[in-house]
Amino acid sequence: MILLQLANINASKNKWTAAKNYYNDAKKLKVTEKSLKEQLTQFSKVFANKSAATQASAIGRDGFNMINRGSKRRRPKMR
Q1: Among the four residues 32, 47, 51, 60, which has the most C-beta atoms within 10 Å?
Q2: Which is nearest to 7 in space by CA: 29, 31, 39?
Q3: Phi–psi pair at 12, nearest 5 degrees
Q4: How far apart are CA 13 and CA 19, in angstroms?
């Protein structure tokens, strides 16, 4: 469970190689609990859609400024 949490933290920070290492370590273990098995399958889907996740985080990081960039004229300094 801790390995999955560490993999998730690294994936959210765009450290995909570290996340993949933790995920592979978690996959090697014998998992009997259904919820953990589901989390492993969901995390494998995240790795399949890795590029979509990075694009979504980039759009969220830019936020509202990306839409309004360059829309207003800057006023000149008053002398």
Answers
A1: 47
A2: 39
A3: -70, -25
A4: 9
Domain coordinates of the chain in residue numbers?
2-50
- 């953990």: which residue's tokens? 36
Token reading at 3: 């390995």
Tens of pLDDT along the chain (79 residues)? 888 899 989 988 888 899 999 989 998 998 899 998 998 898 888 888 877 766 766 666 555 555 556 667 788 888 8
Tokens of 16: 């995909």
**Whole-model pTM above 0.85?**
no
